[in-house]
Amino acid sequence: MNDIYTMSDGLIQSRIGQKLKSARLKQNITQESLAHDAGISLSSLKKIEAGQIGTFENLLRCLRSLGEFELIRPMVEEDKMSPSEYYQLQSSVKRNARKRATGQAKSTKKEESQW
């Protein structure tokens, strides 16, 4: 398999289309049925499967209808913090918190105006 960073956008879209088509066929779903369930036109689905992904929204609709959101889960989930990262975050919040003034306020003498 080629390194994804050296692949052209067209090749990446083509591979995504192939994977989508493969998932649809494994579930024994027709193009018409998937297009209807996803709420997109049949021609849009055919284009996606041919590697011509018009809109990301249509791709998401197809993935949702096929139950294949696992493919994009890493992109959507929030990163989890390690315990040490969490501790550092909490410590920095406490350090930067405003503190209440303690003790007597310093008295400052005001100069009398010459006016």
Content-based structural category:
mainly alpha
- Assembly classification: single chain
Largest sheet: none
Overall pLDDT metric: 84
**What is the 3D form?**
elongated
In sequence order, what are the helices and strands, one letter per element?
Answer: HHHHHH
Which range does the strand content fall in?
A: under 5%
CATH class of one domain: Mainly Alpha
CATH superfamily of one domain: lambda repressor-like DNA-binding domains
Number of discrete helical segments: 6
* Regions with little confidence, pLDDT below 50 for 5+ residues: none
Task: Give the second-level CATH assignment, the architecture of one domain.
Answer: Orthogonal Bundle
The helical percent reads 40-55%
What do you see in this structure?
The chain is mostly helical and 115 residues long. The chain has a domain at 9-76: Orthogonal Bundle (434 Repressor (Amino-terminal Domain)), CATH 1.10.260.40. Helix content is 55%, strand content 0%. The protein contains six helices and no strands. The chain has helices spanning 9-26, 31-38, 42-49, 56-66, 73-76, 83-96. Helix 2 crosses helix 3 and helix 2 packs across helix 4. It is elongated, with a radius of gyration of 29 Å. The chain starts with 8 loop residues before the first helix and ends in a 19-residue tail after the last helix. The mean pLDDT is 84.
